[in-house]
Design a protein that fits this description.
Helix 1 packs across helix 2 and helix 1 packs parallel to helix 8. It is built from eight helices and eight strands. It starts with 5 loop residues before the first strand and ends with a helix. The protein is α/β, with parallel strands linked by helices and 197 residues long. The protein is 36% helix and 17% strand.
Length: 197
């Protein structure tokens, strides 16, 4: 979460888009790549992206233990989930893989703390009350750090990143779906990378 200010939230429809996309994002400074398990190509995309030097590739939209195991088998170096269940949390801990579960309430955070987790994805960030909601949620949980995702843009990311408990944000704007314009993606990644300075 401290490698870059923005973690690209990636949806890959065609495996051949995976390597050019990863190459462009890494060239722009965004090395941590979250490939969402929303398409049939996702696991193969993770395998392909791992060939890009400097890329740290993980799986997002992991919702159960079976998906967790498939993501790990594909070479995922971290796991992101839209929510937190005890079985998924325990499985991620058992597999000793970095795990970023989604939270949207104090109860979610407390469930994570019970499992020994302190780093969370605040999701869906904007529709769950935005930055005021995260500030209120974070107040009683000083030990926790967050990655807001869902509705984050180049325009509103700086406001989120200025809040100390936020280590990074997740955003899809840096990795448009479809055929890859590497120069454009690298430009978007460079813009996003500078948000952390």
């Amino acid at each position: 979460m401290q490698t870059a200010p923005v973690i690209p939230v990636i949806v890959v429809d065609e495996v051949e888009h995976a390597v050019p996309l990863a190459r462009a994002l890494v060239a722009g400074g965004l090395r941590v790549l979250e490939v969402t398990l929303r398409t049939p190509a996702a696991l193969d995309a993770i395998r392909a992206m791992k060939s890009v030097e400097g890329a740290i590739v993980g799986a997002g939209t992991v919702t159960n233990e079976a998906e967790l195991m498939k993501a790990i088998d594909a070479g995922s170096e971290f796991i992101v989930s839209p929510g937190l269940t005890e079985p998924l949390g325990k499985a991620a801990i058992r597999e000793r893989i970095p795990f970023l579960p989604g939270i949207a309430s104090a109860g979610d955070i407390m469930r994570g703390l019970d499992l020994g987790l302190t780093h969370f994805k605040f999701f869906p960030a904007v529709t769950s009350g935005g930055l005021p909601a995260l500030k209120a949620l974070a107040a009683p949980f000083g030990q926790c750090r967050f990655c807001p995702t869902g509705g984050i843009t180049l325009q509103n990311a700086p406001e989120w990143l200025a809040f100390d408990p936020v280590l990074c944000v997740g955003g899809s704007w840096v990795s448009p779906r479809g055929p890859v314009d590497e120069a454009n993606v690298e430009k978007l990644a460079r813009e996003a990378f500078t948000l952390g300075s």
